[in-house]
Amino acid sequence: MKFGAGSILILTVMLAVISLTEKASADDLLIWADYASFKYSDSVEKSYVEIYYSLLRNQYDFQPDSTGYHAYVDMTVIIATDSGLVVDSSGWRVGLRANSLIEAGLPNFLNNDIISAQCIPGNYVVTLKATNPSTNATGEKQFKMVVPAFNQTDMSVSQIQFAYNIVDADNGPFVKGGKKIIPDTRRIFSHDDKIAYFYGEVYNLDTTSQEFAINLRIFDGNGNLYKDIPPLTQTFVGRSATLLNGFNISAFRSGFYRLLLTIAQGDDTAFTEKYFEITPGKLEWDMAHEKQELADFPEAINITNEDEARKFRNEILYIAGRDELKQYDALTLAAKNNFARAFWQKRDPDPSTPVNEFKTEHFRRFKFANEAYSSFSGPNVEPNGWKTDMGRVYIVYGPPSDEENHQSSMEELPWKRWNYDKVEGGVYFIFLDASGYGDYKLIHSTARNERKDENWEYRISPSTTVK
């Protein structure tokens, strides 16, 4: 077995799938991987294998250089037989690049790479390991790999490589059949993708015909035929041909599927298959997310009684204007529902979509404030976290860019500093627990229209005399 030389990460892909938005924990770097086997020249003893893998870029520590920012990843691959015998292994360092730290920290970006090998047909177990050399955080991906044999006489078809897209070729390692095949290492497509692309190769074709038929049959997770795509005819030159195809998935239900690809030429047929998954698109996810965030707030959907009307007023207290609150207080119960609809519509950042992102985020913050800052809780107790200074700041400004926690000491009372890098060019809030019982009060902020006390540093150190 021989590995291809020079694994270098060169491609960044933004995914529509929302399940990637969370950053992995420091000791669990995420790796996705897939593979496909192809005919290796005229050899019948070996097959050519491509192993594709992806790394989530925002897991790594970027440092400045002359062209932007870089990070390094130490990679290891081990290929063993299914009985555990290691047949080959290799290690190398790859580089990730970004134009800025903001770009480096964005979620949902994968860096893709490819490893090539020549393998004796059989069953293998592949182990990929990634290490962040600056933190020693590690991640591992292990999967089974079945490498088929390709003979010199019978018509056959390679394994399928799923792809995010098939675009014009450049000089990168993902070029095949005159196109760049951007690998989908997760075999997951969302409804936003609309088309599921794939690549394959056909061998030992009968040159007297110069055409063959491609049939795609798709089965659902229960094994039932879900879609039978009418056969396509493809012409070719020589004894082999490449398959650069895709099928529309915009109407597919979310779930797992199996693609059965059959090649037919005269009486000869060859087939290959591969599993994939369809997930909701961003809009579908946003709608489900909105429903989840509002589940604890029925008054956000419809105000049906005076108690819900009171709760709704509390929920908008910090974001509504004085005139709006006066107007709300003077309305009947039915009219308050109309007020609520207009209130949110006016704040909808994108009225063209059925989701109000502002409303969803507001209730997420309100719920978090109650969960994190309430002084008491219970099944029949209404939480009061939203009434606290920290709860109010969180609801109005969202989570801080970073937080400083200062414990009680001989010199200082316990206090916290919340920094907001993107609010008014950068502001901070100082909260002091004067009683020592976890009751943090806002004593100073550099944000406009917030409490000011230029001597706040003396307040956290009561033994210091203000000069």
Describe the protein's topology.
Elements: E1 2-3, E2 11-14, E3 31-39, E4 47-56, E5 63-65, E6 68-81, E7 86-98, H1 101-105, E8 109-119, E9 122-132, E10 137-147, E11 156-157, E12 161-168, E13 175-176, E14 179-183, E15 188-190, E16 195-203, E17 211-220, E18 225-235, E19 241-248, E20 255-265, E21 268-279, H2 282-293, H3 306-316, H4 322-329, H5 333-346, H6 357-373, H7 389-397, E22 402-406, E23 415-420, E24 427-432, E25 441-445, H8 456-459
Parallel strand pairs: 15-21
Antiparallel strand pairs: 1-8, 2-8, 3-4, 4-8, 5-6, 6-7, 6-9, 9-10, 11-16, 12-14, 12-16, 13-14, 16-19, 17-18, 17-20, 20-21, 22-23, 23-24, 24-25
Helix pairs in contact: 2-6, 6-7
Index terms:
Immunoglobulin-like; 41% strand; six-stranded antiparallel β-sheet; elongated; 25 strands; 467 residues; alpha+beta
Helicity, in percent? Answer: 10-25%
DSSP strand (E) fraction?
A: 35-45%
Can you give the mean pLDDT?
89
Based on CA atoms alone, the radius of gyration comes out at: 29 Å
Total E-strand runs: 25
- The total tally of domains equals 4
Reported by name, the CATH topology of the largest domain is Immunoglobulin-like
